[in-house]
From TrEMBL:
GO CC annotation terms, alphabetical: plasma membrane
Keyword terms of this UniProt record: Cell membrane, G-protein coupled receptor, Membrane, Olfaction, Receptor, Sensory transduction, Transducer, Transmembrane, Transmembrane helix
This protein's name: Olfactory receptor 2A12-like
GO molecular function term, any single one: G protein-coupled receptor activity
Organism taxonomic ancestry: Eukaryota, Metazoa, Chordata, Craniata, Vertebrata
Membrane topology: Multi-pass membrane protein
Primary site of residence: membrane
């Protein structure tokens, strides 16, 4: 039986028919292939497949979810009322400018006047620089958030602000203790003061102060920001502080509470105890002064110093050494103002501007030498 013969060359009608069939198949198959390609390619995908049972999240997946779900935080600040925010903006702006002016003036006078190149004023200049940096870490952003509707801060910026704030705060804690020791040596051991507080020893003290502050801030920041944060992202504070951030964590924070207490004991309670012990010895030496006027003057100076120390250490210890169950956002914001804003504002007035040497240096800088004499 002979085989049917096929034409070797397709006719134009056959070509058109084949093209129409291929076009129909391409239009139908292409969307199907695109839909299939959008499905997960294997069982190890993080999102899972609708055809497979959902897997329980692991610690590794929670860490990835941390950075993917919360990329920024919302700082709630003090009040949502526009008039209250405007009044607070004016008050805190004035306070911030006075703080910068007072501390900047102290640093300038100590640098320009050679009579103030002593250990006590060296520590005062470092304290003023720390105060300027400390208040600048939080105040500008708080002022901007009071006038701008968008109060967000990125995850990285929040971690950076927390670290810098803690470095400067811990440095101020240690610096208060160093200054109390300086006054103790000057009053109780005046003959040995040049030897015990020489320039190399002062530089070593400041270097140790910064090393302690950086190490403590790293521990605080790392153990706080490594927790998973999967929402909500609203921080009921005016900056990124450790206790306020921990309340947003999607994990158990009991270890962090214990760590905060231990670090607070080392970095807050120990320096505060050394300060109190130094001033007890100073008061004992003051009582041996025969002059009533000199005794009252010394008591007044030491009492003002202790007032600033208590205003700084008291709220800080309440904030960082209490149990996590005692968290109160409105109270915490007020406490933070004391050891962040108020202490930086009062330090130039209490430690320096009431001092005759500083006043004399100020008049000398202005050129009124006759008035100073």
């Amino acid at each position: 039986m002979p085989y049917p013969s096929f034409p070797l060359r397709p006719t134009p009608q056959g070509l058109m028919k084949s093209v129409r069939v291929c076009a129909k198949r391409y239009v139908c198959v292409t969307p199907l292939l695109s839909a299939l390609s959008s499905f997960p390619q294997g069982p190890n995908t993080e999102q899972g497949s609708p055809c497979l049972p959902n897997r329980q999240p692991t610690m590794q997946s929670l860490g990835k979810e941390n950075h993917s779900s919360v990329s920024e935080f919302l700082l709630l600040g003090f009040s949502s009322d526009s008039q209250v925010r405007l009044a607070l903006f004016s008050f805190f702006l004035l306070l911030y400018l006075i703080t910068l002016l007072g501390n900047g003036l102290i640093v300038t006078l100590i640098y320009l006047d050679s009579h103030l190149h002593t250990p006590m004023y060296f520590f005062l200049s470092v304290l003023s620089l720390v105060d300027v940096s400390y208040v600048t870490t939080t105040m500008p952003q708080m002022l901007v958030n009071m006038v701008c509707p968008k109060n967000t801060i990125s995850w990285g910026a929040c971690a950076a602000q927390m670290f810098i704030f803690l470095v400067l705060g811990i440095a101020e804690c240690v610096l208060y203790a160093i200054m109390a020791y300086d006054r103790y040596v000057a009053i109780c051991f005046p003959l040995h003061y040049p030897l015990l507080m020489s320039r190399p020893i002062c530089i070593k003290m400041i270097t140790g102060c910064w090393c302690i502050s950086v190490a403590g801030a790293l521990i605080y920041t790392i153990f706080t920001m490594q927790l998973p944060y999967c929402g909500p992202n609203k921080i009921n504070h005016f900056f990124c502080e450790v206790p306020a951030i921990l309340k947003l964590a999607c994990a158990d924070t009991s270890f962090n509470d214990f760590l905060d207490f231990i670090l607070g004991f080392i970095l807050l309670l120990v320096p505060f105890s050394l300060i109190l012990a130094s001033y007890v010895r100073i008061f004992a030496s003051i009582l041996r002064i025969h002059s009533t006027q000199g005794r009252l003057k010394s008591f007044s100076t030491c009492a003002s110093h202790i007032t600033v120390v208590i205003m700084f250490y008291g709220p800080a210890m309440i904030m960082y050494m209490r149990p996590g169950s005692w968290y109160d956002p409105e109270r915490d914001k007020k406490l933070a103002l004391f050891y962040n804003v108020v202490s930086a504002f009062l330090n130039p007035v209490i430690y320096s501007l009431r001092n005759k040497d500083v006043k004399r240096a100020f008049l000398n800088v202005l050129g009124h030498r006759r008035t100073a004499q």
